[in-house]
Amino acid sequence: MHSHVPFEPVAIADRYELTEHLGAGGMGEVWAGFDRALNRRVAVKLLKSSAFDGGLNALHERFLREAQLLARIGHPAIPAVHDVGTHSGHAYMIMQLIHGTTLLQFMEDEGRPSGTRIVQFAVQICEALSAAHREAVVHRDLKPENLMIDADDKIWLLDFGVAASLAPSDPRLTSIGMASPGTAQYASPEQHLGQYEITGASDLYSLGCVLHELIAGEPLFIGTTARSVGAHHIQTDPTPLRELRPGTPAALERLVLALLAKQPEERPASATDVKAALEAILLENGDDLASGEEQQTAPLQPQLPLYNVAAPTVHVGVDADVVPTLPQLAAEELSALRVFALTAYLDGHFALALPKLQQLVQYAGIELGPDSAESIDLGLVLADIWTALNELDEAEACLRELRENCPCSAGEGMPHENQSADRLRHLDIEHMLGQILHAQGNPESLPLLAGTHASLLSMHGPNAPEVRSLRTLMDSSAAV
Q1: At residue 365, what are phi and psi to the nearest 5 degrees?
Q2: Model confidence over 60-113: pLDDT tens digits?
Q3: Are the CB atoms for 439 and 178 separated by under 8 Å?
Q4: Which of 71, 87, 197, 472 has a CA that sits 20 to 30 A from residue 93's CA?
């Protein structure tokens, strides 16, 4: 079970006071602070000591790399980095403190913005992306939660924690675990496919997802798991915006559809080009981009961020006698718990989703059996959460248990016509477990990855992106 890192509100390096806790994630916490030397307020980002055990391991490298990338970009819409170091076993980063509201919270509080305001927001986002891309930095996690609006209506681009550098001189850091960088709702098809080379075109796709949601008032694609959402991003065409919000200018609809092209090379060439197209739309349509439609809607009923409301409390014990039976737990309570957990998971709030998913997995195992489809599907989500939180031992244990319980014997290269739902679940388990073991340097990964590769090869052929990606991973695993 994860809990907040127990940082005490003391001075970091005898200079930076921790004054207010702002948030926490799987690797650490963010605080508002005060810089005694320069007499100013700052943001303090801290990495928990257990993430690197005092050495310069991959997580610590990523943390330092984030600071270096931010310092390299140096754009007024991206918070500046003032300092970086370690203190009492914790890596820290001192950053510019931004006061404002995330775009996610803005949509929940105020509803869908006017068309003009949406385009103005997008122009500013493109300016920040252009600056990052000029420095060969790809954000890889552009989403409403990482965009902040300040009191002057200025957009800030936040959280470069999973950013990638494309500069040839920069080291490539291998991803820890199997979870693709980014958030399922806004990640590009190539991110969902786990492709190694991610370019600025991926950020443009994420921008298209954000714009589509702002204009339509609902996420581009919705599913019950990150994998089902990813399948939509890979295969499903987006609904044209004018079908969802009549009055949207045709040029804006065309631009968003271009941003959402499945192939990176079919998207606009650069964020600078997108900005120019947006400015032309503003110029052509004046101050009324909705053609007479109501400019500001009522606050949206939150379709995804349901974890912002109180989650139902379900007390699940170890003994079956303590666990509520289905008649004791109202169907609406169970449904609300499931929606809460999966919604938090899909939006990248893994630590928040974790305890509720654990309850659901235990409940399903007792009520429906550990080999039920529901138990296996929820278990796969739980393993994905453990991986995203970098708890690879927990993820491995979860996947091994699922492997034992999945009602399908392992087999390699099973013909597509013989695939069953259980077989596909087993394939998912083998694939995830192989990637986890690969990340841990365990040679057991190679036969698992080979079996998965054989099955995917028979299903999709040698040129499918997922087959090529897995082949690359197998080659790297064999070279270890």
Answers
A1: -65, -40
A2: 777 787 788 888 898 999 999 999 988 877 789 999 999 999 998 898 888 888
A3: yes
A4: 197
User: Of 53, 109, 141, 319, which residue is the catalytic one?
Assistant: 141
Torsion sign (Cα): 19, 23, 29, 30: negative
Whether residue 141 lies in the annotated active site: yes
Amino acid at site 243: E
pLDDT-derived band at 57 (thresholds 50, 70, 90) equals low
Tokens 């439609």 belong to which residue?
293
Structure tokens given for 454: 């054989």
Are 30 and 45 contacting, i.e. CB atoms less than 8 angstroms apart? yes
What's the rounded Cα separation, in Å, for the pair 381 and 101?
30
Q: Which two tokens stand for residue 51?
A: 């993430």
Q: Give the angle 460-466-472 at the CA atoms, nearest 5°.
A: 120
Q: How far apart are CA 254 and CA 266, in angstroms?
A: 13
What is the structure's pLDDT at 265? 93
Whole-model pTM? 0.63
C-alpha closest to that of 342 among 367, 321, 364: 364
Tokens of 100: 């404002």
